[in-house]
Write a structure and sequence with these properties.
Blueprint lengths: L2 H28 L3 H41 L17 H17 L4 H13 L3 H21 L12
Helix pairs in contact: 1-2, 2-5, 3-4, 4-5
Length: 161
């Protein structure tokens, strides 16, 4: 099963669970008892959180793919230069060497989303998925900033205040 297919299956399950939660919440509120009303209102929170998470995941995937397409059009996608074992797994030393080079590139150009995109790929190849995701999110933020200013300078994030 591809990750995209898995995503759609899980999104469908999430939608089904959301409908069940809302239905149960309505029934609990209809009891008219204070405890039922409280639990019914809480049942509405679960789908909201799930749908928010689903939205964030879809947005991240869409933005990552957009950056990949743009980088591919520029001819800047990272090439797969990793050595692999006989079983097809990535050789750890090879991944570490590529990662060190990508990290140096990112330190040399802290405002360029392209180097952070390539660094995120290197993190993923090295098996560090959480850092790969955070680095890709940073690349997406840099791309948005570059798109609004027309440059690749790193602007501070907007405050929520």
């Amino acid at each position: 099963m591809t990750s995209r297919t898995g995503f759609f299956v899980l999104a469908g399950v999430l939608a089904l669970v959301a409908l069940i939660c809302v239905g149960e919440g309505v029934q609990l509120i209809a009891t008219g008892k204070p405890l039922g009303i409280g639990l019914g209102l809480c049942a509405f929170v679960v789908p909201v959180i799930g749908l928010w998470f689903l939205r964030q995941t879809v947005r991240f995937g869409r933005d990552s793919e957009r950056l990949a397409r743009e980088l591919e059009a520029e001819g800047g996608l990272p090439v797969d230069e990793l050595k692999r074992t006989e079983g097809g797994r990535i050789d750890r030393a090879s991944a570490d060497a590529v990662f060190a080079r990508r990290k140096a590139e990112a330190e040399a150009a802290p405002g360029d989303w392209r180097v952070f995109f390539r660094l995120a790929v290197a993190y993923a190849d090295a098996g560090d998925v959480p850092r790969a995701r955070r680095t890709m999110q940073h690349a997406i933020r840099l791309h948005r900033t570059a798109g609004t200013t027309g440059t690749t300078t790193n602007k501070p994030a907007r405050s929520s205040a």
